[in-house]
Design goal:
This protein is α/β, with parallel strands linked by helices and 419 residues long. It has helices at residues 2-21, 52-71, 92-95, 182-187, 197-200, 227-242, 260-271, 299-305, 328-335, 353-361, 364-369, 404-418, and strands at residues 80-91, 97-108, 111-122, 128-135, 191-196, 248-258, 277-281, 340-345, 387-388, 391-396. It has a domain at 75-255. 30% of the residues lie in helices and 19% in strands. 46% of the residues are buried. The model is unreliable at 9-20 (pLDDT under 50). The chain binds beta-D-galactopyranuronic acid (GTR). Beta-D-galactopyranuronic acid (GTR) is lined by residues 259-260, 284-285, 297, 302, 305. Beta-D-galactopyranuronic acid is lined by residues 259-260, 284-285, 297, 302, 305.
Length: 419
């Protein structure tokens, strides 16, 4: 009996091994498994939610499920923040903007982490509404100004930038300017605050120890915060700082992010009510895309590639998406009634564009509860034809990236809601 049992375990284990080596993503809409999405306006006991008050209560429960089962539980910030101005330029962007680099030192329990925040503000119109977003390669990649520092914290890799080694380097200065059209933001009267995501938590698996994780000694559990939650938590610390600035209209701060940082932007919007708009660019699996569709990247695949991004508990749902107590449309529902923009790229099938659209559209009943117009699941738009209501969506030509076209829509969306 024992041998049979051990043999079964062995066969199962081999099966899992083979699966993970030979992962073939599904890109065929006719091969989407049948699934039942959890209904957004239902209580845990199955009763219907018909009032905003009932939803506000249910919202807290759903948030707690996302924290314990998916992203991990972030600590409440109880440390101190020291602010140091590193550089300031009052004639940035052809004299139209004030540019500053600020070091935020988070201190707790004798430990410290430095976040380097690059800020642009329109000179003419303050207090200014702002975009706040993490960048992948360092603040220096957004500008040619040599005063802006190259990160000293761990850098993911510079291969995409045509830089041969993994060291932070001045060679990539200005390399991401097209992805962050600061001049256009300033022209529209908006500011930008950005920081290198690796300052908050380096993007590799070290048992949840480095970056801001290191400020806390709490023993690791199955629901400890992963890197996506840490990046989102770091965005809240920057928001703490922005709320102290007279030049910033902190009632109008949009949290924005691309890809893994789009996942972080969505989670930041869910856990921190001070963000009044959320923009998710190509956030894909465990971002805006519905996990139950298993199209492109799946829960099992993402957990195997990036075991440090989410709570360890989330691994239990590898190839078990139907057992997930929540799906990603409920994350968008948690953002209601805020304006949310979700963007896809038609060649970025790995991120499941239709799944990203449905993540937003299936949140509709909650937006309607607030009297807001969302998207309906039947109206997936053609390429390059944005839909803009309380939820915005576009599927752009081209692949994975946060491109000028995407920003043009975000600026229009911000104008629509902020002006
Ligand atoms: C991919 C990952 C995606 C997305 C992307 C990125 O490798 O599978 O979920 O986050 O990285 O962040 O660029």
């Amino acid at each position: 009996m024992k041998q049979v049992f051990l043999l079964m375990i062995f066969v199962l284990h081999q099966g899992v091994q083979v699966y993970s080596q030979a992962f073939v993503p599904n890109y065929d809409e006719t091969n989407i498994p049948m699934y039942d999405l959890p209904k957004v306006l239902l209580n845990a006991d199955g009763s219907e939610i018909t009032t905003k008050a009932a939803w506000e209560k249910r919202k807290e429960e759903i948030l707690a499920v996302f924290a314990s089962q998916v992203y991990g539980e972030s600590p409440i910030w109880d440390g101190e923040m020291k602010v140091t101005e590193l550089s300031s330029n009052r004639t940035a962007i052809d004299g139209k903007a004030i540019q500053k680099e600020i070091k935020l030192t988070l201190q707790r329990d004798g430990k410290a982490v430095d976040l380097y925040v690059l800020i642009f503000l329109p000179r003419q119109q303050t207090p200014a509404p702002m975009f706040l977003g993490l960048n992948f390669y360092g603040n220096h990649t957004l500008t040619m100004d040599k005063a802006v520092l190259v990160p000293q914290s761990w850098m993911r890799n510079n291969a995409d930038l045509g830089v041969e080694n993994n060291l932070p380097s001045d060679k990539s200065r200005g390399a991401r300017m097209a992805n962050w059209p600061v001049g256009d933001m300033i022209e529209h009267g908006y500011g930008l605050a950005t920081l290198y995501y690796g300052d908050i938590d380096p993007d590799f698996d070290d048992g949840f120890k480095n970056g801001v994780h290191g400020l806390y000694d709490s023993p690791r559990t199955e629901s400890s915060w992963g890197s996506v939650a840490a990046w989102a938590w770091g965005l809240s610390r920057v928001m703490d700082y922005l709320t102290t600035l007279q030049e910033v209209d902190s009632e109008r701060v949009a949290v924005v992010g691309h890809s893994r940082l789009g996942k972080a932007a969505l989670w930041a919007g869910a856990i921190d009510s001070r963000f009044s708009m959320v923009i998710s660019n190509n956030s894909g699996c465990v971002g805006a895309a519905l996990s139950r569709r298993r199209y492109g990247e799946t829960v099992g695949r993402i957990n195997r590639s990036f075991p440090h991004w989410f709570a360890t508990r989330f691994i239990a749902y590898n190839e078990q998406e139907d057992k997930l107590p929540v799906d990603q449309h409920q994350l968008i529902a948690l953002l209601a009634p805020k304006p949310v923009y979700i963007a896809s790229g038609v060649d970025d099938q790995w991120a499941d564009p239709r799944g990203e659209f449905l993540g937003g559209a299936e949140a509709l009943p909650v937006y309607e509860l607030y009297g807001k117009r969302g998207l309906s699941p039947e109206e997936f738009p053609p390429v390059d034809r944005p839909l803009m209501r309380q939820i915005g969506y576009h599927i752009r030509s081209g692949g994975h990236g946060m491109l000028p076209y995407d920003w043009q829509q975000y600026l229009l969306f911000a104008n629509m809601h902020w002006k």
